[in-house]
Design a protein that fits this description.
This protein is an alpha+beta fold and 250 residues long. The chain has helices spanning 3-20, 62-70, 75-78, 86-103, 233-236, and strands at 24-31, 36-43, 110-115, 136-141, 148-149, 159-167, 171-179, 185-195, 199-205, 246-249.
């Protein structure tokens, strides 16, 4: 089967156990190599995940829930589960690796990895970008097909970085920007409308602001203030990463 059919088949096999844990499939990567790498990303539905296929999640492990409730505390407020846990990823990996072997989907040796998308999450569908309007993205474009429209077109650009301004049905708009080592987001005047069909890869760029040293001001040399963006709760509320929760070699 071709790569698209293979992805659909693997996601179909993974979906029952993923949804049983109150999670969503965020995306799937298949990377050729000496052993085929199958990397499944899962995430917990919430305000910072795609609105599609929402499933109810859990707020805390049962043991912690019972202990906190007995003390009159709200475990959902004290221990919000922001993403899949390492145990979740390991359980998905066990079930999916068994299903792949039984169904014999992969004719060659493979390595299966299950993880959360993390802070620098890759977007697999345009709708996934909607909750991240205002964040910085890195976008890699197809060679010879830049997919750009609108105010700014850069014919030779294969990679763009900018602040996500808007998401449409088939395109999104960036305001071109750079990020300094201190975590300042310097926005340009140009905006670029990018067709999703022209995108090879689009990822969120985590922005961490360095604390100012004593005696330092927030201005650049020459007295010109820099436009900056701080990492707020909206940026980090669903962003801790469970490294590779499960790995399987066959």
């Amino acid at each position: 089967m071709d790569k698209i059919d293979l992805k659909e088949r693997i996601e179909t096999l993974a979906r029952p156990v993923v949804q049983a844990l109150g999670l969503n499939i965020w995306g799937l990567e298949i990377v050729p190599g000496a052993r085929l790498l199958v990397r499944l990303y899962v995430d917990r539905p919430g305000p910072l995940t795609s609105a599609a296929d929402q499933e109810p999640g859990r707020s805390a492990p049962p043991s912690q829930t019972a202990a906190l409730s007995s003390q009159g505390l709200d475990p959902g407020q004290l221990f919000p589960v922001l993403s899949a846990t390492v145990d979740d990823c390991a359980e998905i990996s066990r079930h999916l690796s068994l299903a792949l072997d039984v169904e014999d989907c992969l004719a060659e040796p493979y390595v299966l990895e299950v993880s959360t998308p993390g802070l620098a999450r890759r977007f697999f569908r345009l709708a996934q970008m909607i909750p991240y309007v205002g964040d910085v993205l890195d976008v890699r474009l197809r060679g010879g097909q830049n997919g750009q429209e609108g105010e700014a077109q850069r014919p030779h650009a294969s990679r763009l970085r900018g602040v996500l301004l808007a998401v449409e049905d088939a395109a999104f708009t960036l305001r071109l920007a750079s990020v300094t080592p201190e975590g300042e987001v310097l926005q340009e005047a140009e905006t670029v409308r990018i067709a999703w069909t022209g995108v090879v890869k689009a990822c969120r760029v985590p922005v961490f602001c360095q604390p100012l040293r004593p005696g330092k001001s927030g201005k650049k040399a020459g007295g010109r203030a820099a436009s900056s963006k701080r990492l707020t709760g909206n940026n980090i509320s669903a962003s801790w990463r469970a490294t590779v929760g499960g790995s399987h070699e066959s």
